Amino acid sequence: MQPTQRRLANAIRALAMDAVEAANSGHPGMPMGMADAATALFTKHLKFDASDPHWPDRDRFVLSAGHGSMLLYALLYLTGYEQPTIEDIKRFRQLGSPCAGHPENFELPGVEVTTGPLGQGLAMAVGMAIAERHLNAVYGDDLVDHRTFVIAGDGCLMEGVNHEAIGLAGHLKLGRLIVLWDDNSITIDGSTELSRNEDVMARFQAAKWHTIECDGLDAGKVSKAIEKATSDERPTLIRCKTIIGYGAPNKQGTAATHGAALGADEIAAARVELGWTEPPFEIPNDLLSAWRNFGSRGASAHTDWQKRLEASGKKDEFLERLSGKVDDSWLRPYLDQLLADLKPVATRKASEMALEAINAAIPATIGGSADLTGSNNTKTKGLEPLTADNYGGRYIYYGIREFGMSAAMNGMALHGGVIPYGGTFLVFTDYARPAIRLSALQKARVIYVMTHDSIGLGEDGPTHEPIEHLQSLRAMPQIEVFRPADAVETAECWALALASDEPSILALTRQNLTPLRTEASAENLCARGAYRLKAAENDRKVIFIATGSEVEIAMGAARLLEQQGIGADVVSMPCTERFDAQPADYREDVLPDVSNREILRVSVEAGTTFGWERYTGLHGLRIGIDRFGVSAPAKDAYDYFGITPEKVAARILERLKA
Ligand SMILES: Cc1ncc(C[n+]2csc(CCOP(=O)(O)OP(=O)(O)O)c2C)c(N)n1
Ligand SMILES: [Mg+2]
């Protein structure tokens, strides 16, 4: 006899409360409250095959309420994914267990995205749904035809990013996106009445979503709601009315179940309440085998898909595309053409020029901007807009939604098959930062095209002039910040970003820059992060270390010093992270021993000097800006802050005299 949906759900409840109890840490309330809804989704609707978590046409499931991680771990175990094992679950939240506190995408196949920072799961799901529709437009229903399901809590729907995400999803009519809202009226502080009186349903309706309400504790009703959702062309919000910690008789419905172990007494009482007689971590055979059958429910759909793939004539291309490998054959011819006709350009323009070649050579790129298309230079000639009427387009008008754009790009990158890049002003990485951090943490290949990267943007003034941004982004692990100095470096940095398995930030200028790399080189010099652009002609007394637009200024200062018999190297350092990863002998050659006081090292970057002592040594000279910027034409701003060849050279001469 088939177990009831409630009994299937109780297996999730038991695993969640027992795992949290064993760890004495975690969140039992959410998995216990949403167990019935999740059972409905996984046993009847979600298209997946537990034996192949990477099946490209699987539905994507995103647990946006990531604190309820045990819900997901229980589902993966019960449906028969190779991992997690029950031993992994017993070690929930312990060092080395893939069942980490919050779901991490690289720990377990089946965990599509890393969640925990509330709201971002939902926002990433929007990107997954975009990627699905785009690939569907390219490859057709036979190869790409899946949905994206999300479980989101009150917190996810309070966070600001949800406004950006649902606005974008409604606008793009992402009908294959279905969100189950765990409407339990509880957050950590207590009742949602403490902090919310908005009409969430009306808000989603206003964003052109389809909305449904149901009893979230009744799997049958949730199932009916999902059926309705799948037949509507709009994205759907299903409001699942639930009780947090459902099944724990004395604590359910209260914030006490949100984020703490229930305790032995309450767990014993819950076992009675739920009619659950098994010891911790044991699932009765009949129940486990029923769950395992649900885990292979998608096997025949998977086999059919495989047959269609074989017959499609596009198999190799499709798999190659999903592998994420990129072709860099565009780079050489592009550089040859560039070097043949050098002129001053802003690196944002140089980026657009490189993108013309990239977008022609790599069909997987999807560009976009948060309403600064003409400033970020992200739209190349051939790109059509990706719209509700043309999902095959490759350019997204994200609107003024930096955070939503960045989170969507994470979802697109993790979906696979597309390489998202998107732009805004560098200063507004602050608005996108939580998603940039998740790009890094998840190793999502997202390319951030961040223009107007210094006081060189000029008249817009200090609100728009990044100061601390470059260094603070460099401080983030697993992401590379590139600040190219001219058009050749810009192309090299683009090639590195595309080939990377990490996200990248390209910091690009508004103002024109003089070409510095004027000769072809066989090697991508930016790949080493820093290299000697100019060697000292006189006896070397100074080494400049500069980035981006300030390399040209350092070159000018070096020339002035050479005229006075003072030899100066100029090192261009487009990517500090890459330089730090070079072998010691290379680093030593470019920047000889920091304690060598015979040579003065001078960093030049039009931003905070914080951190540059890492390369100059404490006795070096750090030229930058340790205050907010000014509103003035770029030339005047540079002069005001003393970042001109003459003023830099004068400071060095003064220092050398002392
Ligand atoms: C951006 C962000 N802010 C704060 C938190 C800390 N936090 C985790 S869960 C939670 C409450 C969420 O409430 P709800 O989504 O209703 O979850 P429930 O208590 O119903 O499980 C908070 C504030 C977080 N994880 N992410
Ligand atoms: Mg809640």
Q: Can you describe what's shown?
A:
This protein has 658 residues and is of the alpha/beta class. Helix content is 41%, strand content 13%. It is built from 25 helices and 20 strands. The termini are far apart. Thiamine diphosphate (TPP) binds at residues 29-30, 65, 67, 116-118, 153-156, 159, 182, 184, 186-188, 244, 258.
Secondary-structure class: alpha/beta
> How is the main sheet built?
6 strands, parallel
Strand order of the largest sheet: 10-9-11-12-14-13
Number of beta strands: 20
| SS element count, helices | 25
Stretches with pLDDT under 50, minimum 5 residues: none
| Mass-distribution shape | elongated
Terminus-to-terminus distance:
90 Å
Bound molecules: thiamine diphosphate, magnesium ion
How large is the radius of gyration?
28 Å
Strand content: 5-15%
Mean pLDDT: 98
Helix proportion range: 40-55%
